[in-house]
Amino acid sequence: MFERASGEGAAAVLGASVPTPEELVAGMRQQASVLGRAATSTLVAGDADPGTSLVELMSAAAGLVAAAEAVSARAAVQLDRVRRAQEAAAGVPAQRRGRGVGAEVGLARQESAYRGRAFLGFARALCTQMPHTLAGLAAGRLTPWRAMLLVKESDCLEGADRRRLDADLCGDPAVLSGLGDRAVGAAARAWASREDPAAVVRRQGRAAQERRVTLRPAPDAMAYLTALLPVAEGVAAYRALTERAAAARAAGDERSRGQVMADALVARVTGAEEGAPPGVLVDLVMTDTTLFHGGDEPGWLPGYGPVPADVARRIVADAAARAGSEAGGRRGPGAEGDRDAARAFVRRLYRAPRSGALVGMDARSRAVPPGLADLVRLRDGGSCRMPWCDAPARHVDHVTAVAEGGATRHDNLQALCEAHNYAKQAPGWSAAAQTGPGATHRVVTRTPTGHRYVGDAPALPGGRLARGEPGPGAGDRPAVGLHLRASDPEPSPSEAVLAEVLSRWRAA
Predict the structure, then answer these.
(1) Residue 290 forms beta bridges with which residues?
(2) What's the pLDDT at 320?
(3) Which residues on neighbouring strands pair with residue 217, listed in sequence order?
(4) Distances (CA, A) of 95 to 84, 200, 417
């Protein structure tokens, strides 16, 4: 088994005393510069067997990553203590102290607020209850992920039991030596199940409260829809889909088993027929040339990202076809006709020349403020505007608060996840809206330490001019916001809307 070199050399460099945070920052930045130069160069070994030094280099790099994570954990815990003490001195109620620390940690680590809070919890466990795990991480014997597994699998235990687990599994480095991720997690679970089975049962009960459904992009204009469910419900749902697939295949359905299961899932959730476009809200942003003239500029689905132009046009065509078929089926005495059948309509989203920044929107489809909130969500891509956060945008809130003179305008609004919207209300946080390059909407956020984080609205369709394409004239040109939904307060037939928009553009 490969053994790591000891850390005596590093100790000799740093000296016997513990360096200050400022000294650590300076040393880490210097080492990062050295490592960065090495990473972009060809490594030349200096001995007869170049493989030996290269393997040792990779091992040392892994140990350095682990030690840096241990230092980061200690820094997060101390930041939490400092911030809570400052807020207590300022008279902040106890239940509100530290509410922004997780987001502050996430920004410092270039992660989302959710991951920042998770890391802070991980750091608290290491620094207050699991000193042997922290020591193993700092020495490079444990990877950051294996340390996280030990913390996660022991979170159901009381403090004293957690310390015993820490001593039993990590007090002697030989206990977990050579074990992989799965084996380390299994060892922690086995210890907890043996020493406190009641705690494990309680944790399983709490786990059901964490059930959720998530969406993330997949290649080729696909998406992963994932459900975290209690085991009984998960097995039952999967079995129902497999039975539906078996029945369809037995009846001669040419779709594959997986295709039938996917179509059945969408149909049962949205209420649409299997394989038919769903009649629920889907926002799609695209340029007029992509929609009407076969342009190649990709469309943009907020919360997902770019989709190829052909896919965007197909989404619109499917929605229009569905609208037409349903309208035809309802016509007749007493039927609502086109008014309730339309599922595709268009509103103009005005963008700044060259940059593609959305700066205005027709208000015909919805009344403000809901319509204004739609514009902000579309402009911000459906995700949280805070840097490094990909969480869905749940709130549209003022950059400068109304109480501080901020106006309810699109340029003073931003879309945020819940965690970051609550965090920015903590003492010491501030934000200002600015105009970035090419009229891009920009928000500069300051944390209590004075660090600045700049968040620009994403580039939407139409933001770049193709080579040789003439620039736009004075005034903003429209992009197209297509909204595919089951109903709207004032829907109109998609054909009529498209004809109206075309006539307006030709007259412009």
Answers:
(1) none
(2) 63
(3) 223
(4) 10, 28, 21
Paired with 305 in beta bridges are: 301
CB 325 within 8 A of CB 315: no
**pLDDT (0 to 100) of residue 365:** 36
Which residues, 6 or more positions from 105, have their beta carbon under 8 angstroms from its beta carbon? Answer: 76, 79, 116, 117, 119, 120
Q: Give 63's contacts (C-beta < 8 A, 6+ positions apart).
A: 4, 139, 140
In angstroms, rounded to a whole number, what is the distance separating the alpha carbons of residues 15 and 29?
Answer: 18
User: Residue 447: its pLDDT value, please?
Assistant: 95
Kindly tell me the number of DSSP H helices and DSSP E strands found in the chain: 18, 13
Strand, helix or coil at 461? coil
Distance, CA of 194 to CA of 188 (rounded, Å): 10
pLDDT for res 137: 96
Q: What is the pTM of this model?
A: 0.70
Q: How far apart are CA 319 and CA 85, in angstroms?
A: 56
Candidates 339, 285, 311; CA nearest to 457 is: 285
Phi then psi for residue 238, to 5 deg, are -65, -40
Q: What is the pLDDT of residue 139?
A: 94
Strands of 452-456's sheet, edge to edge?
430-435, 441-446, 452-456
Q: What is the number of other CB atoms lying within 10 angstroms of the CB of residue 17?
A: 7
SS3 call for 24: helix
- Chunk the chain into consecutive blocks of 10 residues (it has 508) and report each block's average pLDDT, rounded to whole numbers: 43 57 90 89 74 88 95 96 94 92 96 95 96 96 96 94 96 95 95 92 84 86 90 93 94 93 91 71 67 75 77 73 56 42 48 55 44 82 90 89 82 91 92 82 93 87 44 40 43 46 47
State the CB neighbour count (10 A cutoff) for residue 344.
Answer: 28
Position 40 scores a pLDDT of 87
Give the C-alpha separation, 481 to 288, whole Å.
9
Four-CA torsion 48, 52, 57, 63, nearest 10 degrees? -150
Distance CA 421, CA 113 (A): 10
> Tokens representing 457?
């609205």
- What are 223's strand-pairing partners? 217
